[in-house]
Write a structure and sequence with these properties.
Elements lengths: L1 H13 L5 H11 L4 H28 L1 H35 L1
Helix pairs in contact: 1-2, 1-3
Length: 99
């Protein structure tokens, strides 16, 4: 049983994964994790998540000019990637229709 062995660490890191946070709590209850163990690791994970998100927000905010330039560069590159994927999908569909 994975959760019986790694449950506390899973609860801690589940804070960082969308959707897993809820299910980790449910699994902790189903595997009869001790209440205070769950509370401790959930609180530590929550504090770590808040510090990480706050730090990322502060860093992006203080360097907003650089962020705007990077978004501009990645926007053009991202558009090129999307166009290439669409073109590739159309070519694959076209060649599959011929056979």
């Amino acid at each position: 049983m994975f959760f019986a062995r790694y449950g506390a660490v899973t609860v801690l890191f589940a804070r960082f994964v969308i959707g897993l946070r809820t299910w980790a709590s449910v699994m902790a209850g189903m595997s009869h994790m001790p209440f205070w163990t769950f509370q401790l690791f959930s609180a530590v994970g929550g504090v770590a998540w808040a510090i990480l998100i706050g730090t990322i927000g502060y860093t992006l905010g203080t360097n907003w000019g650089l962020v705007e330039r990077l978004i501009g560069y990645l926007g053009i590159g991202g558009l090129a990637v999307v166009a290439a994927v669409i073109a590739g999908a159309l070519l694959i569909r076209r060649s599959a229709a011929r056979t």
